[in-house]
């Protein structure tokens, strides 16, 4: 199953319907295998997928998870030859679409003409000038300035750490997951990533090779139909009811 077959979404996050998002491998596997989507699709769910970790471990690859600003999970993979990569499978739009070498300043190709890289630098917020972190950066074309997206360390986090972080992310009203609806799907052409399809609130955007088209959903029924038409997602009655009456409803 290629990356274009998986849809990243926040629709199943309504606390009215589901409560705290689960981190159990049974629940996570259901989203990937049965439905072909990340049903519980935050980074903690996607990045914590036991099938992903077990597959890599079976190939003799060291696989650890760490945090980005304590609200995002990334994975650090060490290959048998010692080369390390940052693997991020749950960021959604603007996230890396391939493993990035854990090497300062090495530029990788994103969805054309996008470029991605990791840099190891001190943050302006740090009081200790010797404190260095890895920073994920992207730019939409070689002509644009680099934009910092998130930072992370190489400190391994354990399941107990993510239980606490996952609770805040799924329950706090300051977490955008609790008041926004985002759906992202990659667009493939002959095994090549050429763009993204995004639903952000009431706006559907299709970006292909740097060009963007937009459509506006004026009602909740129009958005439900857009999810079915563009993303092949048919909301259950529970999911529709979970949105009704909340700030996310159109």
> Architecture, CATH level 2?
2-Layer Sandwich
Taken as a percent bin, the fraction of beta residues is: 25-35%
Terminal CA distance: 33 Å
Tell me the number of helical segments per DSSP (H or I, 4 or more residues long). Answer: 7
Helix proportion: 10-25%
Mean pLDDT: 76
| Helix/strand class | alpha+beta
Q: Output the helix-strand order.
A: EHHEHHEEEEEEEEHEEEEHH
Radius of gyration (CA) equals: 18 Å
Which CATH class applies here?
A: Alpha Beta
Task: Write down the overall geometry.
Answer: globular
Sheet with the most strands, sense and barrel status: 6 strands, mixed
What number of structural domains do the residues give? Answer: 1
Which regions have little confidence, pLDDT < 50, spanning 5+ residues? 12-21, 23-41, 44-50
Can you count the beta strands?
14
The fold-level CATH name is Arylamine N-acetyltransferase fold
The side-by-side strand order for the widest beta sheet comes to 2-1-11-12-13-14
Topology:
Layout: E1 7-9, H1 15-18, H2 25-34, E2 37-38, H3 43-47, H4 50-58, E3 62-68, E4 72-78, E5 84-87, E6 100-101, E7 107-109, E8 115-121, E9 133-139, E10 147-152, H5 159-171, E11 182-189, E12 192-200, E13 203-208, E14 211-216, H6 220-231, H7 237-243
Parallel strand pairs: 1-2
Antiparallel strand pairs: 1-11, 3-4, 4-5, 5-6, 7-8, 8-9, 9-10, 11-12, 12-13, 13-14
